[in-house]
Amino acid sequence: MRRRLLMALAVLPAVAQAGVEDGATGCASAPLVAYADLPATAALPDPFLSRSGAALKRKSDWPCRRREVSQQLQAYELGEKPAPVPGSVSATLDGTALTVTVKDAGRSVSFVANVQLPSSGTPPYPALIGIGRSSLNNAELLQRGVAIINFPNDDIAQQRNGQSRNLGKFFELYPQREGAGALVAWAWGVSRLIDAIELGALPNVDAGRLGVTGCSRNGKGALMAGALDERVALTIVQESGSGGAAAWRVSDAQKAAGQNVQTLGQIVQENVWFRSSFGQFGAGAAKLPYDHHQVLGLVAPRSLLVIENTSMEWLGNQSAWTAALAGREVWTALGATDRMGISQVGGHNHCLLPASQAVEVNAFVDRFLKGTAGVATDVVHTDGSFPVERSRWMPWKTPALD
Ligand code: MCU
User: How confident is the model at residue 316 (pLDDT cuts 50, 70, 90)?
Assistant: First the structure.
């Protein structure tokens, strides 16, 4: 009997275990608060207090806390990410063009992602998904054994200007979701691309070793894609600025100090990256029950590298430094500090990766996508002069969770 069972198991096809976008289960959270009832909080909110006010005690408390912040981010800022629909994704590969088709409720859309395979290594390769494209050291990454996939984000949700609202394939599939921001539409699309890879649409790519990256506006997208899908092993957010690595509150403070910084109030006018109702926070970010240090924290305990450019005041250089340091405390609480890196280097054009940061990208890619042992990823530095006012912005304590 026992022998027969073992034989039956052995002939099962070797299907890789599919991951899940959000692995939290059995969470009991205090309800979301309506905008009118949100209290103003000057400091960056405490990442370690759940919505009920209870302090986190164990590492195992993190998935439900993470879910709470993800819900807040979607409810107030991005728009809700549609849940995966089982059986809705199919894909075909023609040369380097991967066509992904998603069907839901009688509607169907297709998008094309372009795939470049590396010139070294052994398949299945790890892969980096570029929002639009990757602005990293791509030639080097391909030589080092990493595939690069271009995700056509503008096709999923347009971002030309403030008139781009509700345009793109996401809104063709989900017309009832108008008002959602482009960032969440892109994050949804990246998840469907990952579904297709998990289905085996790219036989030479390893669905268990995927990263996302993007620069500037597309860096904001990379952050949201990594934050909202736990199947993403490594997130590299490049010069994302306000709406990405920067904290809305600290950007408001930079602006109040006379600097030319993009704030929440400005960004909701410029483009459609955020849900239309996000404009209600435009007078100031203090009513948000979270800030972007916690959006960075949604990636924890997976790996995150934040690359910023100190020369660009508009991006909220001081704000991104402060928020990234605050966000890194989440990894510290989870005992995974060296999975989160912060690198801020100026003196170069926007989205042109300096050689010193390419070294850091390679280290994160080697350790977290290629799985190379013994690679140091302790990266925390800025060439800016940004004294961090911890008592002002982080008046909370980082717990050592059991
Ligand atoms: C840093 O990302 C944006 C920024 O938020 C915008 O204000 C500016 O117009 O464009 C940046 C960008 O995407 O540059 C390519």
Answer: very high
311, 335, 306, 338: which is closest to 322 by C-alpha? Answer: 306
Q: Is 303 in the pocket of ligand 1 (CB under 6 A)?
A: no
Could you give the number of structural domains in the chain? 1
pLDDT for 309 equals: 98
CB 226 within 8 A of CB 219: no
Confidence at residue 20, expressed as pLDDT on a 0 to 100 scale: 93
Q: Cα–Cα distance between 340 and 69 in angstroms, integer?
A: 19
Pairing of strands 205-215, 234-238: parallel
- Per DSSP, the three-state class of 131 is strand
pLDDT at 400: 94
The answer to whether ipTM exceeds 0.90 is yes
- Distance, CA of 231 to CA of 208 (rounded, Å): 7
Query: Where do the H-state alpha helices sit in 301-396?
Result: 317-333, 355-368, 390-393
Q: Is position 263 within any domain?
A: yes
216 CA distance to ligand 1 centroid (A)? 5
- Relative to beta strand 107-116, strand 97-104 is antiparallel
Backbone dihedral angles phi then psi of residue 155, each to the nearest 5 degrees: -75, -30
* Nearest of 183, 322, 315, 318 to residue 262 by alpha carbon: 315
Residue 314 per-residue DSSP state: G
Q: How far is the CA of 157 from the centre of ligand 1 (A)?
A: 16
List the catalytic residues. 216, 350
Q: Indicate if ligand 1 lies below 6 Å from the C-beta of 242.
A: yes
| Residue 293 placed within a domain | yes
Q: Which residue is closest in CA terms to ligand 1's atom 14?
A: 216
- Answer positive or negative: Cα dihedral of 137, 190, 150, 215: negative
Q: Give the separation between CA 227 and CA 22, rounded to whole angstroms.
A: 10
Q: Is residue 217 in a domain?
A: yes
**Burial status of residue 162 (CB atoms within 10 A of its CB: 0-12, 13-18, 19 or more):** exposed
Residue span of the structural domain in which 182 resides: 36-393
Q: What percent of the chain has pLDDT over 70?
A: 96
| CATH number of the domain residue 372 falls in | 3.40.50.1820
Work out the pLDDT band at 284, boundaries 50, 70, 90.
confident
What is the value of pTM for the model shown? 0.96
In a domain, 29, yes or no: no
